[in-house]
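Appendix B. One record, verbatim.
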Amino acid sequence: MSEPSVWQQRIAGEWHGKPSLFDATGTWVGFEQVTRSSVFENGTTTYYMDGGLEAGGPLAGRFRLGAPFAFGVIDSDADRVYTGPDFYGTGQPYGGFVDAHYYSPGWQVDLNTWNQTIGDLQVYSSLMYQGPAIVAAFNGLYTREAAKVEQWIADETANGPASFILPTKTAGAYRGTCELYGADQKPGGTVDITVELEPITLLRTRHHVTWTGALERRHTVEVRRDGFRSFYEGPGAWGNAQAYGRANYPSLHFTDVGKLKGREFMVDATQGMGAGRTLAVVYQLFEGGRPAAVVHGVLTWSSS
């Protein structure tokens, strides 16, 4: 390829972050301060990642390595292929979001990494597996604005362990316009999403969800939170979710053939202050087991 792909151009530059490490239960255990870049040169793309693990508990031995990562990438807006030696697998871009599945011989885990790029902000998470079982999760925010790096790292140190908790005593709604992509990775228009919250108790909230535009859907569901876990208990959807810090991962089954898996990241959540006002969301939609669409964007809170 003589020119970098659209996705490669979107992620150009050096990104800085301090993602948090969580164990399989959602308990915060440490940080990985990271500098990473994806360099296109002479028709070849190489990905570099230099970081150091702080703390980590029982997971430290698995995720603390003595050298930076580097691996080749076959650059494409269809399939990005990671050719090793430090990561092997593929990633599929959907506009400003990439869904990557690959294996790390150093960490000895299978990863599903989601990167949502919003200008100079990157919302990052990796769920890491041993077979079908979650081993751990990394997530955090990255910037490529050099002037912000020092304060950015300080903020991520303070807020990385913050928990995903929606408003529990104030009614209101998260609203925003999101981008829609088909299973073929082609743009399909925009979707206006509204998630109205009707608190019932400190641990139970009724969600009235409306999607309009290029994709129409609406449902009401009662959501019960139990620590880092949530349960969606009908009538319009059934399922559960697991949170790792500021990121919540719902898995929902609707009352028709539809199914949803997603990530809802509280970009501005802070330690001890509860819910944030800004949600960066990614939703993968399925018809039964068949991939149907990807929706991603930003939702902003306003109280009733």
